[in-house]
Each structure stands twice: as C-alpha cells, then as structure tokens.
Design goal:
Length: 283
Amino acid sequence: MTILDGKQTAAVVRADIKEQVAKATARFGEPMTLAVILVGDDPASRVYVSNKIKACAEVGILSRRIVLGADATDQDVQAEIEALNADPAVCGILLQLPLPAGCDEQRLLAAIDPAKDVDGLHVVQRGKLFCGLPALLPCTPYGIMQLLARYQIEVAGKRAVVVGRSNLVGKPLAMLLLNANATVTVCHSRTPDLKDVCRTADILCVAVGKPRFITADMVKEGAVVVDVGINRTEQGLVGDVDYAAVAPHCSFITPVPGGVGPMTVTMLMQNTCDAYLLQHSAR
Ligand code: NDP
C-alpha cells in the first residue's frame, strides 16, 4: 500500500508553479494578484483563507484579502466583485464559501468575471469542463487528478466510483475522471446498495462529509482510495474513509489530513497563474 502524500506532492507542484509565476511576471512586467473575499466570521473559512494567502506568498503571487461582515448584503458582495472584475491588476478572484445564510451563492459566483474565476465555479468554466474544453478547473477535483497523475496511476479504462455529487467536488470530479476515460459511477444519498457499487471501484473517491463513512467491506482489494472528507471530531480531523481499516486493502490511499487538502490550495495557485497568462496574452 502506498500513501498518496498530498503534502509532499503539493510542495513539488508549488516549486514548479513558483517558476511559472516568475517567468510569467517577468514576461509581462506586472505582478500577479489574487483577491480573496471572505464574508462573515466562519472560523474554518478564516483558516482556509489564511492558508491560501500563505500559499500565494510562497509561490510569488500577491494577494488581497477583502473581509466583509456577516451582515453584508448580496449587493455589498457584488459591488466588491465588480470592482475586482474591473481592476486590471487583479487576475484572480476567489469568493470563499460557504457564504452566510441568506446570501445567494450561485448569483454571486456568476457575478465573477469567468476569466478571473480561479476557483472554477462559474457556470462558464463548468460548461467548458462538461464539454471537455480547456477550463479553469475546480481546485479540489483538479488536485485529485494531479495527485493521481503524479503517482502515475492510470485512470483510462478504470472503473471509478465517486461517492458524493456536490457541485464543488463530486460532479466535477466525475467529469474529470470521465474526460480521462474512466468508466464513472456517481453515488449519493439515494443510491441503493452503495456497498456493492463501491466494491466495483478500481478508483474510489469519497466526498460525503461523514467521518469514517467508508468501511473496509466497501472497498475492493487493491483499489485506489481518495478521501476528500474533512471532518472535525473529538479525535481531531478525520476523513470520510475509515483509514486504519481500509488502508491495508488498498494499492494507494490518501491520508486525512495531508492528502487532498494541500493539493486543493496548490491548484488554486496554478489556476491563478493560468488566468494571468490568458488575460495578459489576450491584451
Ligand atoms: P456536500 O455536503 O455538498 O455533499 C455531500 C454529498 O454526499 C452529497 O452529494 C450527498 O448526497 C452525499 N451523501 C450524503 N450522505 C450520503 C450517504 N449516506 N450515502 C451516499 N452519499 C451520501 O459536501 P462537499 O462535496 O462540499 O464536501 C464533502 C466533504 O469533503 C466534506 O467533508 C468537506 O469538508 C470536504 N471537502 C474537502 C476539501 C478538500 O480540499 N480536502 C474541499 C471541499 C470539501 P445527496 O446529494 O443525495 O444529498
């Protein structure tokens, strides 16, 4: 069994991105700037935003943190987005999710200029992904595909099962696996015989949000298991997979923490660099 070490892989990928950033900014003579909008005071979101800002500094991307109170209206958030859309110094805009209750997430995501949508959540980017066209990809699924690629795990021709169908993770991941020529099954809370379906997977990806939801009897011997879940429990952070019981049956498995998480932030840096290059090449 091999651990898919997201932390180590992210460090390698970030070193490469750092070089790309240096080359791109030297070529166009302008710094690369990511703007992150945080609405409200969700403690987990604050940590995620800090991690993103830190990652920017690590690879040479400038960052702007825009913090709005939990009482901000959709109009307030939209006004910030529009100002950033119009600012040529900003090549990437990230709206940290989840937004406080009452905010219209889909409408605000749609207000971001698709060319600056480095989280890959605008319908235009999603549409491109659906059509198999080059796109700014949602960072978590993109990070998973990178992790598989870096460990030279063949996807084409494999049977992949994705448990979870969120717009953020499950659906785009299923699409990326399909575009990479896997045969993909997507499961959700209404899937009957989940255990039997999971046991067909050569590659089992889990994004459910329930601690240790996937047990050893749900995993085929020798499967690749990707655990997206981040669950805060009394025993600390745990994934959606019962790691101790499942790991001995896998060929590869991601740990939590240190698996998918570090790759997610890293691909945000890659998207920011790609968005910068596309915008500057078009000017
Ligand atoms: P959502 O809550 O949006 O989606 C959860 C999915 O799991 C839904 O599709 C739901 O089905 C499905 N589900 C729930 N219960 C069951 C069940 N009993 N059997 C089968 N499927 C079920 O979560 P996200 O996709 O946003 O996140 C999932 C997890 O990944 C969370 O722990 C989150 O914290 C983590 N995460 C980690 C990231 C990282 O960088 N590592 C990034 C993003 C998320 P239905 O649609 O039918 O309700």
